[in-house]
Amino acid sequence: NMKVQIWGNVQFPGLYLLSEKTTVIEVISLAGGPQPSADLDDMRVFRMKPDSTYEMINFNYNDLLWNDKLEKVTPAPKLLPGDIILLPGEPRLYWREYLSLGLSVMSTLLSITLSIIYITN
Q1: What order of strands is seen across the sheet that includes strand 43-48?
Q2: pTM for this entry
Q3: For residue 13, how many other CB atoms are within 10 A of its CB?
Q4: I want to staple 57 with a disulfide (CB 3.0 to 4.6 A). Which of 28, 38, 45, 63 is the partner?
Q5: 78 and 116 within one domain
Q6: Are residues 86 and 97 both part of a single domain?
Q7: Sign, CA torsion 70/73/76/78
Q8: CA separation for the pair 36, 90 (Å, rounded)
């Protein structure tokens, strides 16, 4: 068995204890799959080298989803113990963030309006 971490735009990021034959696709599936905001064309595996620095391996899973011919697909790296898989992507704003932003703008506009009314009277 090996420990692999998955971070970023997946449903359940975290540390997973896996069989050494587990593939990148299987880890992403175990983590709940990619979120809609995930950049599947810029997936990364970070691997610690013997000198304690990290090597970054990029690969593109959009090739797998959208190419008609599988020989064009960028192969995913074989996972090793300690690897970190990262699915970057855009942060999503939820209704609470939009509401908070809207209320802040309204509060500022109301304060400016009341200040102008107070000063002119």
Answers
A1: 14-18, 2-8, 84-87, 43-48, 54-59
A2: 0.68
A3: 16
A4: 45
A5: no
A6: no
A7: positive
A8: 9
